[in-house]
Amino acid sequence: MKLKKIHHVAIICSNYEVSKDFYVRVLGLKPIREVYREERGSYKLDLEVGGQYQIELFSFPNPPERASYPEAEGLRHIAFEVEDIESAVSYLKKQQLTPEPIRIDPTANKKYTFFADPDGLPIELYQY
């Protein structure tokens, strides 16, 4: 078996409209397809990042909470590449978000920061 690339990341949100607004309006991801799955009482929104389908945003009735801190067990975070981290941080602050201070990756000598989505999912911005 040879893995070619990551196909998508699936995110289950607690408030579909709030998260949809966050990922589409605030982060600027492009909606590809949105469906309501009546049998599951669930929306599914496929989002495009950088010209590729990469994020599935789901709603489910009463999903259980899960610890979602960068150092918790399980999926650690989702990371997006940006060209200019300082302008990205400035933009996030204008959107009433609170990114962490910019840090330097000691191995790659690259700048990065974290902030959270509406459900507290850690999101990393990495200047490559």
Automatic annotation (TrEMBL):
One of its GO terms (molecular function) is metal ion binding. InterPro entries: Fosfomycin_Res_Enzymes, Glyas_Bleomycin-R_OHBP_Dase, Glyas_Fos-R_dOase_dom, VOC_core, YwkD-like_dom. Keywords: Metal-binding. The keyword Metal-binding applies. Pfam families: Glyoxalase. The keyword Metal-binding applies. PROSITE patterns: VOC. Residues 5-128 form the VOC domain. NCBIfam families: PRK11478.1. This is VOC domain-containing protein. It comes from Neobacillus mesonae.
